[in-house]
């Protein structure tokens, strides 16, 4: 299992290096996830030990929100000053996400033959 935890962290590091080297406008961990996903697609499957490591990380994911919560409490006055802008950004980004997801489902559903058409 330590091997697969190392693989996950190596993909994150590779993503960080790729983003810095190429100046990409995405976070390094996202690029690392793409690299890990590409490796799993090439391998054509997820090893059982990698799935267990991933499940272990996901089961403790809530711990990663503690620093974000502390940051929110630290800057609550600034958040209060910018409440309208933050609210508009949240609503607009949520609507954009729903629209893009609906469009993707519509495009991907055309070839399956299971949709209404």
From TrEMBL:
Gene Ontology MF term list: hydrolase activity
* Signal sequence interval, chain numbering: none
Q: Where in the cell is it found?
A: Cell membrane
Where exactly are the transmembrane stretches of this chain?
31-46, 58-78, 84-108
Q: Which domain of life is it from?
A: Bacteria
Q: What is its main location?
A: membrane
Recorded hits in Pfam families, A to Z, give: LrgA
How does the protein's chain sit in the membrane according to the entry? Multi-pass membrane protein
Q: What cellular component GO annotations does this protein have?
A: plasma membrane
* Protein name from the UniProt record: Putative effector of murein hydrolase LrgA
